[in-house]
Amino acid sequence: MAINLRRSGIRDFVVFDKESDIGGVWRDNVYPGCGCDVPSHLYSYSFARYADWTRAYPKQEEILDYLHRCVSRWKLESHLRLGTEIAEARWRPQEGLWRLRDTAGTEYTARTLVCGVGQLNRPRYAAVPGRETFTGAQFHSAAWDPAWPPEAFAGQDVAVIGTGASAVQFVPEIAPHARSLKVFQRSANWVIPKYDYAFGPASRWAFRNVPGLRLALRGIIYTVVGETLLYSAIAGSALGRGVQKFSARHLRKQIADPALRAKLTPDFPIGCKRILISDDWYPALARDNVDVVTDPVAEITPDGVRTADGTDHPATVVIHATGFRATEFLSPIEITGRTGTRLAERWKDGASAYLGIAVPEFPNLFLLYGPTTNLGHNSVVYMIESQVRYIMRWLEAAGSGQVEVAEEALAAYTANTQRLLSRTAWAAGCTSWYKTADGRLVNNWPRRSFRYRLATTRRRARDFLTP
Ligand code: NAP
């Protein structure tokens, strides 16, 4: 968003971040093995395609470095207000402005407010008692204690709660070092191979020098892997059932023990939860010093984890790989709109925004990566770029005036999106971070991502009240 504002010649903007650096999830998540399971050549801005990726799938440090390069290339430093946490934003109808207040009490005003706080930045813990009683070391995967590199696990008995996309990345890194490691699995996941590898000097030379190569690769990954293969699993098509067979074969190939294989076989169709992509998760679980525990976690005790069958599992380190409070969009920022309604109040039964971007009664407020814009099959950077383009168009049209989406436009968008979501694999019977407590799917875009690009290409003036 900031780059596009600058590219359009707009200089009068600031970017707040509560932390002391930019980078979002790529700044926060520093667990061993952290990286992205979207291939490198797709996981970048279309206007800043990076030539120097070192591997097929980028690691966290490389992505953060890429983002820092973007900040300096587009001279964003002077716009950044780091270490500034916005607590409240209130629309002032008399002034036609947003008034913001940070946690230190400083106030700011802005004609337009764009929120890009993400969906996966507030850690969630298992809803079991006793966490505060544990006497060993414990941390969440998204708040990894830097005193715990893989080697530090030597001689430790480790308990990992959770088996999502984060756990599959760090468990293989620490398992070879730990004395014992127990993975507490509530549900098994479908996993497909990653085929990750480091680019050799010839490939890296080619990415730099062969015209069109990066663009072609990006297009193939986007179209063939994302929009066709992975999307088929979400759509539940015949091809999707083929992807499930491919995943089952990956399990058979990597896990020889039938009892362990049975534990790791999901009881829901592929695509219902996020598909995991890993070459080394199953081999880590098959190690002699690793156990997969499927009895539900009942309690954290001073000495480890107790499961519902009453067994105590002693541990010196507990790692909570239990994900994020992903359905509580924008929380805990208190945002109050034109009519005095708070956004959290409006969203108490589940967040919704027109195209995931605009909310009635909240003029000149735009969301990036808002409700119904997450993907399970392709790069969210593509979605965010679609949103940025759309917002830029509205900023241009609104000028110094106000723009607010109409209630009817949101109602029609939400009804259609929910109808489409109900036909996807996400709606099948499984738990996932895509669902609110009462099972409403609020995070994801139900169609292929290019359909979102099309939907955001035109600015439908009739859907907005002004200008
Ligand atoms: P997650 O996918 O939400 O996984 C949380 C895990 O904790 C699940 O296995 C869940 O079990 C488990 N859990 C929760 N409560 C539990 C309990 N009481 N007892 C036992 N297990 C419990 O979180 P995540 O792994 O941090 O990943 C979140 C998202 O971040 C991903 O889906 C992905 O979008 C993103 N991410 C992306 C990458 C990447 O490579 N691009 C890497 C990491 C993360 P259930 O499955 O039964 O609910």
UniProtKB/TrEMBL annotation:
<dbReference type="Pfam" id="PF13738">
    <property type="entry name" value="Pyr_redox_3"/>
</dbReference>
<dbReference type="Pfam" id="PF13450">
    <property type="entry name" value="NAD_binding_8"/>
</dbReference>
<protein>
    <submittedName>
        <fullName>NAD(P)/FAD-dependent oxidoreductase</fullName>
    </submittedName>
</protein>
<dbReference type="InterPro" id="IPR036188">
    <property type="entry name" value="FAD/NAD-bd_sf"/>
</dbReference>
<dbReference type="InterPro" id="IPR051209">
    <property type="entry name" value="FAD-bind_Monooxygenase_sf"/>
</dbReference>
